[in-house]
Amino acid sequence: MSYHCPVCNKVSSSAMDLARHMIGRGDKVHRDWISSKGFKYSEFLTLQFKSFGGEGYKTLAKILEKETKVED
Fold first, then answer.
1. What one-character-per-residue DSSP string does 4-67 give?
2. In angstroms, rounded to a whole number, what is the distance separating the alpha carbons of residues 46 and 35?
3. Which whole-number Å values give the CA distances from 46 to 29, 42, 51, 52, in the listed order?
4. How far apart are CA 35 and CA 22, in angstroms?
5. Angle between helices 15-25 and 28-36 (to 10 degrees)
6. How far apart are CA 61 and CA 47, in angstroms?
7. What's the CA gap between 3 and 16, in Å, rounded?
8. In what order do the strands lie in the sheet with 11-12?
9. For 33-45, what is each residue's pLDDT tens digit?
10. Which pTM value belongs to this model?
11. Distance between CA 27 and CA 25 in Å, rounded?
12. 20-27: long-range contacts at Cβ-Cβ below 8 A with a sequence spacing of 24 or more?
């Protein structure tokens, strides 16, 4: 199973890896996609800095699992 970035079509083997990609890129098109899902990019960054265990990544990964999963 793989996950495709809805913005740039990067292929990742896990939703968590794709979440790291999207937060790590942080460019306008990736931020806009996150905003289109009702979240703020800055909220994910804040979760990353304030919490232990990658809560920002985990939250975004849950969204990406539903939205970007591609059966191999």
1. E-TTT--EESSHHHHHHHHHHH--HHHHHHHHHTT--HHHHHHHHHHSSS-HHHHHHHHHHHHH
2. 15
3. 19, 6, 8, 11
4. 12
5. 120
6. 13
7. 10
8. 11-12, 2-4, 69-70
9. 999 999 999 988 8
10. 0.84
11. 5
12. 20/57, 22/60, 22/64, 23/48, 23/56, 23/57, 23/60
Domain encompassing residue 52: 2-70
Q: Which tens digits make up the pLDDT trace of 6-25? A: 999 899 999 999 999 999 99
Closest CA to 37 of 69, 68, 71: 68
Q: How many domains does the chain have?
A: 1
